[in-house]
Each structure stands twice: as structure tokens, then as C-alpha cells.
Amino acid sequence: MAVKRVLQYGEKSLREPSKEVHKVSKKIQELVQDLLETMYAKNGVGLAAPQIGVNLRVFVIDVSKNDEPLNPMVFINPKIIKKSGATVAQEGCISFPEAYTDVKRYANVMVKALDKHGRPFVLEAKNGELLARAIQHENDHLDGILFIDHCVNRFEADKVLAEHNLPPVDPDLLIEGPESEDK
Ligand code: ZN
Question: Among 36, 45, 79, 180, which residue has the least CB neighbours within 10 Å?
């Protein structure tokens, strides 16, 4: 168990799709520990396995505030089974240090996954809360999708990326966000 190096935007593995976990083995539990330790070390809200170079469908999230106790959440083989609404907010990523841009996401999601013991659970996150956004952001990492692919304004995103010496948005990878505010 250790704090791992976080892959940075531009590194190829971040764009590769991740594979399902077949068994929540001891090795997977160690991966979960590494993800949590690395996420906390980087003060992130979430971290996905491909970001530490492991292309498996695992991510962790902790949306607790500074004055609250830690609340680590583990998602193995997650699937977003319901989504609705739309919301825009600034987003960043540990693989893009200090670069933030507006991203459109679903306001409400329901996700099904396995916990760190391999037990299935279903979780709902609503009203555009940080958890709803984090689930979509981390889940995207498992398919090689990055938050800038959802940017509201590509030119603004490019400007921010350039300021941090990062490559520009790839227009071919842009994803149309959720359309409306409908429920
Ligand atoms: Zn990220």
C-alpha cells in the first residue's frame, strides 16, 4: 500500500478503456487502498484506477468536507443505471493539476457497483451534488474519457490548458452534454 504516481494528461493509458474486475481479491483490495491513499495525498475528491496506471474498473470517492470525518466510497465494476437533469459547474482532475473548466453533467444519477468486499450496492446522488458529479467524472475515467471532453466551452478550456502547458482539447473526442433540465 502506497501513494502512487498519478498519470498526467497526455499519457496514453488515461485514454485506454479499463477491464471489469472478475473477483474482488486481496490484490483488488490493495489497489483500493492505494487509490484512497493517493487520493487523500493529492487532496482529490475522487481517483480512478487508470489514473495510477491500472486499467481496471475501480474508483474511489470522498466528498466529505474538511471539518467532517473521512467518508471513503469504493466503486468496483460500476454502472450508471439511471441519469437525468443537467447542471454546469467548474471541474478539475488530479491528472490535470490546477486546471479547471466548466463541465456539463447529469444532475441526478443512480449507480450500481460492488463495494470493497465484493458486495453489490445501489446509490443515488441527486440535485447536482458533488457526489453526482464525481461519480460521472470517475466513471468516465474507466472508459478513457476525461472531463475536458465534456467542457462547455472548448476555447476557454484550451486557454486554461495552455496556461498549464497541457495539450489542447481534442475536438474529435468532445461529448455533447445532457440536453435539458428535464427530470
Ligand atoms: Zn479525473
Answer: 180
The residues near 8 (Cβ < 8 Å, ≥ 6 apart) are: 95, 96, 97
What distance in Å separates the CA atoms of residue 34 and residue 12, rounded to the nearest whole number? 21
Q: Say what the pLDDT of residue 180 is.
A: 58
Helical residues (DSSP H) of 18-102, grouped into ranges = 26-41
Q: What is the amino acid identity at position 91? A: E
Distance 6 CA to ligand 1 centre (A): 10
CA of 133 to the centre of ligand 1 (A): 11
DSSP 27: H
pLDDT at residue number 51? 98
How many residues are there in the chain? 183
Angle (nearest 5°) at CA 112 between 130 and 20: 110
Give the Å distance between the CA of 67 and the centre of ligand 1: 23
- Active site residue ranges: 138
Residues of the chain with pLDDT under 50: 182-183
